[in-house]
Amino acid sequence: MLKWSCTGRVFLCGERTGPGKGRAIWEAAVSLYEQDFWAWCRVQAQALCSGHLAGLDLVNLADEIEEAGQADENELLSRLEVLFIHLLKWRFQPARRGRSWRLSIAEQRRKIARRLERSPSLKHKLPGILVDAYGDAVLGAERETGLDASVFPAESPWTFEQIMDAAFLPEEGH
């Protein structure tokens, strides 16, 4: 049986594996994944750090790593969509411009920049992400403004550099 003790922030395996114990530890790790995800994460981290590879739940670990990477991409897509929505609203509803739109635009720019700093390999995916984000943003802007989607350009009229420029706010004709 696997014993757990809490040392600081990490749950540690209370026993070292000997011959034949690897399968039991792996089965316990899989069971823990289903019962207590947080504890499972700590056990997996400790097993990796200590080189205790027999205790790794490789299937679930690989899935979680892949999901973590996908979460970064999804966050980038979502933040770009919100940025595009506010830029479209700014451009097509000048009478409704206000401080909250300006603050939201600035916040999305900061968080997009931070995400790309922390995951720079996402930059090579930007062209596709921008297309998806803009398409979703047109639908969002239609919903939020009450304007017909045909009012908005079919493709983004702005470059990534423009939408990330702190001084850029689209005016008539831009």
Automatic annotation (TrEMBL):
Entries under Pfam families matching the protein:
DUF29
| Domain of life where this protein originates | Bacteria
What PANTHER family does this protein map onto?
A: SLR0291 PROTEIN, SLR1203 PROTEIN-RELATED
- List the protein's name: DUF29 domain-containing protein
